[in-house]
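pipeline stage [seq->struct] | target=Iron-sulfur cluster carrier protein | organism=Roseovarius rhodophyticola | residues=356
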Amino acid sequence: MSDVLKQVRAQLEQLELPDGGTLISRDMVRAMRIDAGHLRFVIEAPSAQVAQHMEPLRAAAERAVLAVDGVDAATVALTAHEGGAEAPAPQLKIGGHPKGGDRSIRPASVRSILAIASGKGGVGKSTVSSNLAVALAKAGQKVGLLDADIHGPSQPRMMGVNARAASPDGKVITPLQAHGVKMMSIGSMMEADKAVIWRGPMLMGALQQMMSQVDWGDLDVLIVDLPPGTGDVQVTLCQRAAPTGAIVVSTPQDVALLDARKAIDMFQTLKTPILGLIENMSLFHCPHCGEETEIFGHGGVADEAERLGVPLLAALPIDLETRLSGDAGQPVALGEGAVAEAYARLADRLVQGGVA
Ligand SMILES: Nc1ncnc2c1ncn2[C@@H]1O[C@H](COP(=O)(O)OP(=O)(O)OP(=O)(O)O)[C@@H](O)[C@H]1O
């Protein structure tokens, strides 16, 4: 963390909350960054109800940080963990059959939809999705994250959102909010230890509901974390939501790459543009001896990207902090350091390319 950001945190430690503690001690500060003297961060209230009373504190925080040398301007936003304890549980029947034939399920207020896919499970597709969402939000984009991995939803854990989603009118679902990102997951609609035992049509119905019945509002980009493989959810998304493009995540290992090719072939068949590939877990840098080990090999994804004529968008190392912060619901891209910078570069590249 830079010295200026450390001083900003120290300054915020001085600002007492009316009900005790500070924004720092109560872990309410998210996505803090400084760019050419302009400091930006998000205060995340535990619920929408609490957030309603926090505007004076937001304004006070914005004023207080201007006292720090190196901060010339400050923008502090207020968000809430929607669906806190007092929010009503959704009355929707999730998991019905899809409706409307081939009609589009693309929300009109969403500018870009990025599908994050992989051929094989466990290669880091959800990790990339959550970190990319956070990095885009840090870059000032209005971001949504839809966890479409219906059988194995991991975004509630990775984004640190335990609340159940709410639907005040029983028709429209209010998305949850974490780290400046609107988030919706089938995991936020179900009881934690209930298995989802739906088949094709119900999966497609659930995707349709999460696209079109969630109040996404105006978004620059909606990141869709797909299930692994080439099944009904992927095909429905491509045919009915017309994603702006797909990003395929793979490890450099042969077996993962073989499956990634199938995913790539599916997107080509469905005429969804492939924006590029991401190599995840490419290199391990030992923090003790400094040695670098290619645990899953190296370079395979770059070769595949070249063969297809699409960019290699990022090569991300196998990294303990990535795993720990994902498990703790605080994506590594929230902080600083080499991996956070790699995600910031990836976000920047997608924004510059006009796809986010
Ligand atoms: N670069 C990385 N370094 C270290 N651990 C990682 C990295 N990327 C992902 N992981 C870890 O690997 C595990 C699997 O990652 P993740 O859930 O993102 O994969 P996935 O492709 O979405 O899997 P699935 O398709 O089965 O849901 C997680 O524990 C995650 O924290």
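stage status: PASS
auto-comment: Residues 254-269 form the longest helix (16 residues). The domain at 110-352 is CATH 3.40.50.300 (Rossmann fold).
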